Amino acid sequence: MISERELALAVEHPRGTERRRLLPYRVALNDAAAYAQLPEPDRDVIVRWAEIRRRIALRGVDHDPSNLADPLLLAAALRAHVLEGERIAAGGALVEDGGGDLQILVARVRGR
């Protein structure tokens, strides 16, 4: 479960929080095949953050294309990358994104 406290922190410090969470995975965030090769607990970290990003984007906090120094990844692009990586990790099964909670969708892709 993602707590309201965790969401509040992400809204208050989105760029720093994203950097701390995702920096160890920068190679995997640039290559879906590299993402798919990560151990599942590492993929879980990325999935959790991508879901947090979806939720804070609903609150108006997302990548600002007018700010060239904005390091935030676009929430929709991060979500698409995660789903592509999970598709590859699952052996190429089709992943249909109907929106909603990414953690639930990834669990379905993983067969849970």
Structure description:
There is one protein chain. The protein has helices spanning 4-12, 14-22, 32-37, 40-58, 75-89, 102-109. Helix 4 runs antiparallel to helix 5. It contains six helices and no strands. It is globular. Helices cover 59% and strands 0% of the residues. The protein is mainly α.
Can you give me a brief rundown of this structure?
The chain is mainly α and 112 residues long. It contains 6 helices and no strands.
Can you give keywords for this protein?
mainly alpha; 112 residues; 0% strand
- Count of strand segments: 0
Sheet with most strands: none
Q: Outline, from the CA principal axes? A: globular
Our count of helices gives 6
By secondary-structure content and strand pairing, the structural class works out as mainly alpha
Mean residue pLDDT: 93
N to C succession of SSEs? HHHHHH
Strand fraction? under 5%
Helix content: 55-70%
Q: Which stretches of 5+ consecutive residues score pLDDT under 50?
A: none
- Distance between termini? 16 Å
Radius of gyration: 14 Å
- Quaternary state of this entry equals single chain
Topology of helices and strands:
Elements: H1 4-12, H2 14-22, H3 32-37, H4 40-58, H5 75-89, H6 102-109
